What we know:
Family: Belongs to the methyltransferase superfamily.
GO biological process, one term: methylation
Shape: globular
Distance between the termini: 36 Å
Strand content: 15-25%
GO molecular function, one term: methyltransferase activity
Keywords: Methyltransferase, Transferase
Mean pLDDT: 90
Number of strands: 7
Low-confidence stretches: 1-6
CATH topology of the domain at 3-140 and 167-191 and 242-249: Rossmann fold
Number of helices: 9
Largest sheet: 7 strands, mixed
Organism: Chitinophaga oryzae
Structural class: alpha/beta
Oligomer: single chain
Order of helices and strands: HHEHEHEEHEHHEHHE
Amino acid sequence: MKNTERFSNKVDNYVKYRPHYPVAIIPYLAAEAGLTHQSVIADIGSGTGISTTPFLDNGNIVYAVEPNKEMREAAEKLLLRYPNFRSVTGTAERTTLPDDSVDLIIAGQAFHWFDQEAAGEEFRRIAKQNAYVVLMWNIRQTNTPFEQAYEDLLHRHGIDYKDMKHRNISPAQLGILFAQGSFREKTFQNVQRFDFPALKGRLTSSSYMPDKTNPGYAAMVKDLEDIFEKYQENGMVLFRYETKLYTGLIADTR
């Protein structure tokens, strides 16, 4: 399966159950990357618009570049109310955006899918002089007994979960994009609370987990039920994330 097609049958649950980004990223990027209300943003691998929304709320024009048709169409429906939303059919390696056209390039939960060398060249092409790049991830924590049990379930039932470790993006990979390989890392805390139907939706929003057509689906859901019953408090479980931002000036090789 192509990376650009991995989420085609996951869109509804992705929209409902994936974590959003803390509103605190906006003042942070104003201080760290010169973000203003007038900044033009390119959101690369924008998916259903989760990473796009905070910048639209800030009043920015956002070019949401997404190759997956189903995810792009979901974003178009959800973000129709924003006059500054621009939906773009493109990839990280070929955005179709004009040269020297954006002030800030963001990629939320997406950089690990890119051809990073080719994406770096494309980012430099579309960036204005002294533009910044921001790579963002919501990284699910695995420290509590519930979190560890959920992680074990992913290893047990995931189709290719072991290959999906964006936590392992190296400084060298990150440095491809940034001037002199220099970037600043910032962490925010982020949480979600789920009842069982929402927990199941969160699980099945992941590209590496079986869907209903897979013979292993029923066993996966049964294991999830067992985990939920063991660790729920007042009918809810807590998902904790660290939202990590990597921010720096784009390397300019022109």
